[in-house]
Amino acid sequence: MGVMKTNIHVEKYERMAELQAFDKTKAGVKGLVDAGITKVPRMFIQPSMIEHSRSENNNKLIEFPIIDLDGIKEDPIKQKNIVQEVGHASESWGFFQVINHGIPSHVMDAMKDGVTRFFEQDTEVKKQWYTRDLNKEFTFNSNFDLFRAPVTNWRDTFRATIAPIPLKPEQLPSVCRDILLEYTNQVMKLGETLFELVSEAVGLEPNHLKDMGCAEGLLALGQYYPACPQPELTLGTSKHADNDFLTVLLQDNIGGLQVLHQSHWVDVPPTPGALVVNIGDLLQASSVTF
Q1: Distance (Å, rounded) from C-alpha 4 to C-alpha 219?
Q2: In what order do the strands lie in the sheet with 95-99?
Q3: By CB count within 10 A, which of 84, 115, 268, 276 is most buried?
Q4: Confidence of residue 289 (pLDDT cuts 50, 70, 90)
């Protein structure tokens, strides 16, 4: 009687070691792409269920709400209609797009260019801003929850605390400093308008949410999603909720943003001149009820 013995060696995956090595480069996902990788590292590979969720999205019959703010300050009737639209979209979606919001298209385009410029700088220049110290006014890293999340997202991020304490210009990278300050200044003004609309939509006085201090702080995030050699295996940003009062999102023209609506993932179409507004967890958890 013969006996065959086979030794099978299974390579042990040391995820923490891979995360630490990645973080130590201070180059982010862009650094991997610049190094010419042809396969997505294991730390970025999403569970197989991602494919299932992708297959059920794109209900083409569902139209993402777009709200036109044109004339909101001059026409009381328009203003009343806009308040109703904001209330309906906030209750049924938690999201909506706004157009004619007062921020010029050239400012939005310049802001997108500024984000790209920052992340496409030479790595050695960028490294000076790389940190996980959230007490700093400006930080650059890849995945703020790198060592806690089960899967790493395919993106790099910069984070700037703009308000309530004003920044000194030298606390921001020169490559995007001026446009970041200009854009966020205008977003603060838009934010006040949005808080007024939301307040009125739930039957409160226009200044109610502002008087609560909801409009005092501003955190600006610049997200960068480098070209991926195996995009079917990973995501730029996985499913999440925003833990703030309001998020104002400036999309590029590539698309890919989705929101969960009535158990379906729905594409948010890039709309020229539009900004996406998300009702955040803090606003939902407050006394405001739609």
Answers
A1: 64
A2: 66-68, 95-99, 275-279, 246-249
A3: 115
A4: low
3-class SS shares of the chain: helix, strand, coil, % to 5:
35, 15, 50
Token code pair at residue 42: 């294991």
Give tens-digit pLDDT for 181-228: 999 999 999 999 999 999 999 999 999 999 999 999 999 999 999 999
CATH H-level superfamily of 15-285: B-lactam Antibiotic, Isopenicillin N Synthase; Chain (2.60.120.330)
Helices 177-201 and 76-92 pack at an angle, to 10 degrees, of 90
The token duo for 222 is 């610049």
Cis previous bond, 150, omega within 30: no
CA distance 143 to 155: 7
Q: In this structure, which amino acid lies at residue 161?
A: T
C-alpha torsion angle, residues 167, 173, 178, 181 (rounded to 10) = -40
More confident residue, 6 or 47: 47
Task: Round to whole Å and give the CA distance between 246 and 280.
Answer: 5
> In this structure, are residues 71 and 102 in contact, taking their beta carbons and an 8 Å threshold?
no
Q: Which two tokens stand for residue 272?
A: 């020229």
Q: Cβ(259)–Cβ(266) under 8 Å?
A: yes
Summarised one tens digit per residue, pLDDT across range 53-107 is 454 545 556 889 999 999 998 999 999 999 999 999 999 999 999 999 999 999 9
Tell me what pLDDT residue 283 has.
86
The structure tokens listed for 108 are 């939005």
Q: Specify whether the CB–CB gap between 116 and 173 falls below 8 A.
A: no
Contact 188, 215 (CB under 8 A): yes
Tell me the residue length of the chain: 290
